[in-house]
What does this fold into?
Amino acid sequence: MIALIYDSLLKLQLIVFKPEKLDWFDELEEEILKWEGTTIQLHKFGGTQFNFQNRELGHLHSNGVLDILFSKKIKAELMADGKVSEHHVFYKSGWVSFQIKAYTDVKRALELIQLAYHRAQK
It folds into this structure.
């Protein structure tokens, strides 16, 4: 519950100080929803969760942190390339984090989620 409240406060901060980021996040959601079998829902720790056939691909917190689950092998490859960072909580898992700071990061975020989506289809 506290995480949901915290995420809501982050979203309020965006509305006041960086409203364009909300547009970026909406664009991300709209694109992902075009992919067959995808849905979105509120994530248990706040933000938006992206699903494929009721399986979580990742989630976007209102501070712009996108968390995505990969295999540990793919995580290692992405981290070696500097494309993602270690997940902010689950260090020894396949979870990675990617920060959306600028509009150009939306494209990279989509590429990362699409990678998870294609792997989930197998």
User: Anything to note?
Assistant: The mean pLDDT is 93. The helical segments are 2-17, 19-33, 72-80, 104-120.
